[in-house]
Amino acid sequence: MDPADYLLKWLRRFLKNKDLILRKIVEMKENRIVYKDKELLTLGFTDLEDVLQEDKDQAIAVAVFNTRNNLEVLLKRWKDLVTYERLTIYFINPQGVENRWIISPHLHNKVADPESLETGIKTMADTVTELTDEEIINLIKQDSIL
Q1: DSSP label at 47?
Q2: CB contact at 8 A, 91 and 98
Q3: Domain residue extents for the chain
Q4: How many CB atoms lie within 10 A of CB 11?
Q5: Is the dihedral angle over the CA atoms 53, 59, 65, 71 positive or is it negative?
Q6: The pTM of the whole model exceeds 0.90
Q7: To which H or E segment does residue 87 belong?
Q8: Is the alpha carbon torsion for 29, 67, 53, 104 positive or negative?
Q9: Which of 35, 77, 135, 143 could cross-link 24 (Cys pair, CB 3.0–4.6 Å)?
């Protein structure tokens, strides 16, 4: 399985489980989830920077592995990411007990103190164990066996 497919599969399963009580999902398409009140583009990227190629007007949920590189991209490209008003990023490590941290840059930028922004983001990232490339490869292999 391709890492991006793995991430997309994880994200779609997570969002579907999250909706079990509210039951707002009407339809799940290949890379979109249609809710009663919105449509969400769902993506999986190994490199967070790839999301910057997407249309800013869409509601986007993207899953990325919780890696040092993706955290660095978030911090380095913060000013670009905050221009996506309906972007939510899920940093995941499926191996951990605490397996994700979530950020919506546009909203976070409105409420965060600019002086402590980087420290706050790093603190959130520290709640989930960082993955290495080798661990990601092993994850994909294990999932392919199941």
Answers
A1: S
A2: no
A3: 3-134
A4: 24
A5: positive
A6: yes
A7: strand 87-92
A8: positive
A9: 35
Joined together, the tokens standing for residue 39 give: 């449509």
Secondary structure of residue 10 in the 3-state scheme: helix
The pair of structure tokens assigned to 79 is 């000013």
Give the residue among 90, 87, 8 at the shortest CA–CA distance from 52. Answer: 87
- How confident is the model at residue 138, as a pLDDT? 92
Length of the chain equals: 146
Residue identified by tokens 């079990």 is 20
Per-position pLDDT tens, the chain of length 146? 899 999 999 999 999 999 999 999 999 998 999 999 999 999 999 999 999 999 999 999 999 999 999 999 999 999 999 999 999 999 999 987 889 999 999 999 999 999 999 999 999 999 999 999 999 999 998 876 44
- Residue 61 CA to residue 127 CA, distance in Å, equals 20
58 vs 52: CA distance, rounded Å: 12
pLDDT value at position 128? 96
